[in-house]
Specification:
heterotrimer; A alpha/beta (248); B alpha/beta (340); C alpha/beta (283); A: 248 residues; alpha/beta; Rossmann fold; 2 domains; 5-stranded parallel beta sheet; 10 helices; 5 strands; globular; C: 283 residues; Elongation Factor Tu (Ef-tu), domain 3; 7-stranded mixed beta sheet; 6-stranded antiparallel beta sheet; 7 helices; binds flavin-adenine dinucleotide; binds iron/sulfur cluster; binds FE2/S2 (inorganic) cluster
Chain lengths: 248, 340, 283
């Protein structure tokens, strides 16, 4: 069997997700043994015509991004979104909750009219995304899972349960017991409860579980000391696009 | 049975004495306010005065994650994981948690008796300790007393300055051999009072639950619930699991593992094509509570909730199983006494 | 004392290890469905009852339940009719004759053939529901002296989705079988009936007391099929249905398949309708 041809692209992100930034030393050689990297912005030049798997990092926030993503989609058999920015519109998505002019002012100051920007869109809101590797930065464990699944020709499945499940499987002390607040109850698992395991609260970087009960989550947050606005801000940090319109 | 007296200062000595004979697992401090059963390395780390551990000792017989088999993709073959009897002493167990193990014995032994669980259960010795009910315990209402010694090999009943030590089985007696303890002459202390009660006499269990399917409490509870699954994962009588294959990064082989699952999770009843059979949180709440008070109870005549209070204590949404059950009982009584 | 006595270690079984069986034949039935023939080591018999299922596993992918589609009268091998819908079924679709898969089972409660003997048998199958029903149909066909009349009512989304087309043609041609088929939407070549499956039931000529009926299909079909059967006058005690739920273990442990108090993998998948009629989660 020919090795899958892999391409990697990055759009507007913070570069925290970039594959070459992760601590893959041990696994990188194993990974590369399975694939041919045909395009890797930064690492290679020369544009390949077609790839079996395209990994896309970053959210889409300029008209040029939109053009490029359509091209990537056309050439890719399988498209995988990497990291919160690509999957949820990411932390960039927070700007969607502010009027767009204001954001441009803040980010670009005087030059705001030179840079046409769109709201920070999730890749899936523009083209079809086949699989996600979530997290900010993306969850390494999940990247390896999705990667091996694709190499073996099987469909990776996304967990649909909450981070609390993984947290409880590890018998962690819940950070609520230490007076912190945590978004684990409505956040999609897959990181092996990375943050609570090291005594931190979950910021929800992996996005929401399907059909989340956000009203109930708001109540929990308020019960534990946030006011309603703070509660929704907290929830929106990584899920602004998804939450838009839910809060009534 | 002879009763001995053990001064509080000598608990470490007892643990060390036991540790010399078999591995000992006992409650340790974990995090800032929590406790967990761990293997005893230093007897001084054992904490006997604790309200509850997050995971009961079921975790030693039905581990949160467990490899069932290892497979080789090139050979397309597998080898079944080697499961060993626990052959250890579980020290400082509360009565409700042993009651929960007995219930799991029934569930995993019934129909198709499961080798993994039953093998691990072999050679388990239980040393119990009495406890002071806190704001969540309600085991008294399901027939489990804090000083209930049933099923234990040795039981420690807390006194002001120490413990009454009773050997309840031959195994227990032998383990205590060689330890020089004075006899305890005075009787046992009165047991502490419960702050939480469910008002559901066992004789009515079946009847009340039979009338509760359409109670509004399910939907009302669902409004506050985020479906996180915590209440399942901490319950000592829950045993549902999922199985998943993991492939190593060389893509040469991997493991088939099982891990605890929970009926409060949406995906629990999800099938290919997107159908979810228990779609609404209200349906899932009812299923969870019926698993504890109806389905298995109709079969065995016993509540399957042991009143440990964990699901309430650990629910971030503050949902209380005591309130749910009392509401069902209250509504049942109202209907039962209201003339038609 | 422990009031719940635990089974002894000698009674305990390794419930989760499969036996490795060979795929001896793959036949493409439709765009989505294949019929796989599977042979156990040393040609051992599976020893199933019609209506039972197995758990099929592919290492590195997982395990899933599938009904045994062949009748126990078909010996030395067994057949699985499988629709490609997800992870495991996609990988299975790419496997070739000679490759091995893991098999556990047979599991569940199949048809109690004794209860069916001497009776007329009515099969109501929607879509992929024909796969398990085929084990009963062929059992009845192979033991004609034990049963009365055989009625088959089969509904499919389109004529391209019809399964086991060669067998359907034989059933249709067999004068001893009362065979009816309908499709929701027919192609231009479709000469048969169109309409949902329940439209076929009123026209059946049934000996109501003598007929036992077995229903299997997608979740929404059951309620409508029941209505039609009841208004036809078929007594409830003559109705059986094969249900499907998510499954993991197949042996009554993992909890996924539970419908109220019953475990589909133990008490089902074939249920006597009066036993589940009061279960709110069943239909
Ligand atoms: C008793 C019974 C008999 C069945 N008989 C057949 C049959 O004869 N032919 C056929 O094509 N299909 C049958 N199914 C459905 C079949 O099990 C699912 O299509 C299959 O599990 C999908 O697996 P997947 O990995 O391809 O899908 P995914 O969606 O990737 O599913 C992942 C896993 O979820 C579980 N799962 C998903 N859907 C189901 C489901 N419907 N039932 C149980 N578990 C599920 C399985 O463990 C599966 O491996 C039957 C199901 C049951 C319960
Ligand atoms: S720390 Fe967070 S993720 Fe863990 S159990 Fe508590 S709420 Fe859930
Ligand atoms: S615990 Fe929460 S914030 Fe941390 S990695 Fe997981 S999903 Fe992201
Ligand atoms: S722990 Fe509480 S919020 Fe979570 S599923 Fe259970 S009842 Fe719902
Ligand atoms: S239902 Fe709640 S109180 Fe009862 S045994 Fe389970 S965790 Fe404990
Ligand atoms: S499939 Fe596991 S209990 Fe039925």
């Amino acid at each position: 069997m020919a090795k899958p041809r892999v391409a990697i692209f990055d759009f507007t992100g913070c570069e925290g997700c970039e594959l070459n930034q992760l601590n893959f030393e041990d696994q990188l050689l194993d990974i590369l043994a399975h694939v041919d990297i045909v395009e890797w912005r930064e690492a290679m030049d020369g544009h390949a015509d077609e790839y079996d798997i395209a990994f896309v990092e970053g959210s889409l926030s300029t008209p040029d991004c939109i053009k490029r993503i359509h091209e990537v989609r056309r050439k890719a058999k399988v498209l995988v979104a990497l990291g919160a920015c690509a999957v949820q519109g990411g932390i960039n998505g927070v700007k969607n909750t502010h009027p767009i002019e204001e954001v441009r002012e803040e980010v670009y100051g005087e030059d705001k009219y030179l840079f046409p920007t769109l709201p920070a869109l999730a890749v899936s809101s523009v083209v079809k995304v086949d699989y996600n590797v979530r997290g900010c930065p993306m969850t390494q464990l999940e990247f390896l899972k999705v990667f091996t699944a694709l190499v073996l020709g099987k469909e990776p499945i996304e967990p649909e349960h909450s981070v609390c499940v993984e947290c409880k499987l590890k018998e962690n002390e819940c950070v609520y017991a230490r007076g912190m607040i945590c978004l684990g109850p409505v956040t999609r698992a897959g990181c092996d409860a990375h943050c609570p395991t090291v005594g931190q609260y979950c910021t929800g970087c992996r996005g929401l579980v399907p059909e989340p009960n956000l009203k109930a989550m708001e109540e929990i947050l308020v019960e534990h000391g946030l006011n309603v606005d703070e509660a929704w801000k907290r929830l929106q940090l990584f899920n602004a696009n998804e939450i838009e319109g839910v809060r009534s | 049975m002879v009763q001995f007296f053990l001064e509080s200062e000598r608990v470490t000595e007892l643990v060390t004495h036991l540790k010399g004979q078999k591995p000992v697992f006992a409650p340790h401090r974990k995090g800032r306010k929590s406790f967990a059963f761990e293997r005893v390395e230093d007897a001084a780390d054992v904490v006997l005065d604790y309200p509850r551990v997050m995971h009961s000792i079921r975790k030693f017989f039905l581990p949160p994650r467990e490899t069932l088999m290892t497979f080789d993709l090139a050979e397309n073959d597998f080898s079944t994981a080697d499961v060993q009897p626990s052959d250890a002493i579980f020290f400082g167990v509360h009565s409700y948690d042993l009651g929960a193990v007995h219930r799991l014995d029934y569930n995993l032994g019934k129909g198709h008796p499961e080798k993994n669980y039953i093998t691990r259960r072999q050679g388990a010795v239980f040393v119990g300790v009495s406890f002071e009910p806190d704001a969540y315990h309600f085991c008294g209402s399901v027939g489990i007393d804090p000083m209930d010694t049933s099923g234990f090999d040795i039981f420690l009943t807390k006194l002001l300055d120490g413990y009454i030590v009773e050997a309840l089985t031959e195994v227990g007696e032998q383990l205590l051999n060689g330890l020089d303890l004075p006899a305890h002459e005075a009787g046992k202390p009165a047991r502490g009072n419960f702050q939480q009660h469910i008002y559901l006499p066992q004789a009515k269990l079946n009847e009340v639950m039979a009338k509760s399917y359409d109670n509004p409490v399910w939907a009302e509870t669902a409004e506050k619930c985020v479906g996180c699954g915590t209440c399942n994962l901490v319950c000592p009588t829950c045993y549902c699991f999922n199985v998943e294959d993991t492939v190593n990064i060389q893509a040469t082989g991997g493991t088939r593992d099982r891990h605890w699952d929970g009926c409060m999770l949406r995906e629990f009843t999800g099938v290919a094509g997107g159908e979810v059979f228990r779609e609404h949180l209200a349906d899932r709440q009812r299923h969870r509570v019926f698993r504890k008070f109806k389905y298995i109870s109709d079969e065995t005549g016993q509540p399957w909730c042991v009143g440990c209070g964990r699901c309430t204590a650990y629910c971030t949404a503050g949902i209380s199983i005591v309130n749910i059950v009392n509401r069902l009982v209250g509504d049942y009584e109202k209907v039962a006494v209201t003339p038609i | 004392m422990n009031q719940f006595q635990m089974a002894s270690p000698t009674e305990a079984r390794d419930l989760y290890s499969p036996v490795m069986a060979v795929i001896s034949k793959v036949e493409k039935m439709t765009e989505l469905e294949n019929l796989y023939t599977v042979v156990l080591p040393d040609g051992a018999e599976l020893g199933h009852k019609p209506g039972q299922f197995i758990e099929l596993s592919i290492f590195g992918v997982g395990e899933a339940p599938f009904s045994i589609s062949s009748s126990p009268t078909h010996r030395g091998e067994f057949e699985l009719g499988i629709r490609r819908v997800g992870m495991l079924t996609e990988v299975l679709n790419r496997m070739e004759v000679g490759q091995k898969v893991g098999i556990r089972g047979p599991f569940g409660n199949g048809i109690d053939i004794e209860q069916f003997k001497g009776r007329d048998v009515l099969i109501v199958a929607g879509g992929i529901g024909l796969v398990p029903m085929r084990s009963i149909i062929n059992y009845v066909i192979d033991n004609p002296d034990d049963f009365g009349k055989l009625h088959i009512v089969y509904g499919s989304r389109t004529d391209e989705d019809l399964l086991f087309t060669e067998e359907l043609a034989r059933w249709e041609a067999d004068p001893k079988i009362d065979y009816h088929v309908t499709v929701d939407r027919g192609s231009l070549d479709w000469k048969g009936k169109t309409g949902v499956i329940t439209t076929l039931i009123p026209g059946l000529e049934l000996d109501l007391e003598k007929t036992v009926c077995c229903v299997c299909g997608p979740p929404i079909m059951y309620r409508f099929a029941l209505l039609a059967l009841k208004s036809k006058g078929l007594p409830e005690r003559n109705i059986f249905m094969s249900l499907e739920r998510r499954m993991k273990c197949g042996v009554g442990k993992c909890g996924h398949c539970q419908i109220n108090s019953t475990y589909v993998c133990q008490d089902g998948p074939v249920y006597h309708y009066p036993d589940i009629k009061s279960l709110q989660e069943a239909l």
